[in-house]
Amino acid sequence: MRGLLEQGLAELGIAPPAGAVEKLMRYGQLLLEQNQVMNLTAITRPEEVATLHFLDSAALLGCAGLAGASLVDVGTGAGFPGVVLKVLAPDLRLTLVDSLGKRLDWLETVCQALGLEGVTLRHDRAEELAQEPDWREAFDFAAARAVADLRVLAELCLPFVRVGGRFLAMKAAGCQAEVDAAGRAVSVLGGRLLPAWHYAIPGTEVKRTVAAVEKIAPTPKGYPRRWARIRKAPL
Ligand code: SAM
Hints:
Layout: H1 2-11, H2 20-34, H3 46-58, E1 70-74, H4 82-88, E2 93-98, H5 101-113, E3 120-123, H6 126-129, E4 139-145, H7 150-157, E5 161-172, H8 176-181, H9 183-188, E6 191-193, E7 197-200, E8 207-215, H10 227-232
Parallel strand pairs: 1-2, 1-4, 2-3, 4-5
Antiparallel strand pairs: 5-8, 6-8, 7-8
């Protein structure tokens, strides 16, 4: 895993801080161990954890200057992309949100094991949390990978982002139709679509896209709506 990570990070133009590669290797070990008893990932080969989880998550650093910024990872699951970003950019002010408490309990032990400081973990549904005044428009960035269709995801994520900040949705390549279909939702929620950012995951043939949205106006008070409403009538 070490060689793949070192080479892949170099290809992405990322200079890892001292000890970061070792931390990612430890994270991979903890992930695969815990995956025996808890459903965390369908990826079980260490090389694929390195590429499809770690390098994919790391690639987000090439698309936005995250140093010193605050970022909420919505639907973080086993910590992607948030934990990887924090390992590689230790001054990132990271918040992990997921609706599954057991995953966050495990992530807390991971943050301790990796010595990651200042990570906030919150067990909640994004659409409920984003209605809380302290959480609303409180972050420079919201990021999400593999959580929902962009129309839905925009409603879960954009309310967290301050005006002038960005929402970054990590998607498969070929998501242009999904991005186009989300145009109205993005605009209703106070956002403006930026040009998508394309990359390949080093060491693989996998191509990926980050759909980026700039927050240009506050999200109107009625959003996000309740989950049943979002699902039944996406914007
Ligand atoms: N982002 C991770 C990744 O890329 O591997 C996890 C993806 S997993 C398929 C989706 C995660 O989103 C799950 O852990 C689920 O519990 C969480 N999730 C789904 N809807 C959510 C919501 N409305 N609020 C918070 N978390 C949510």
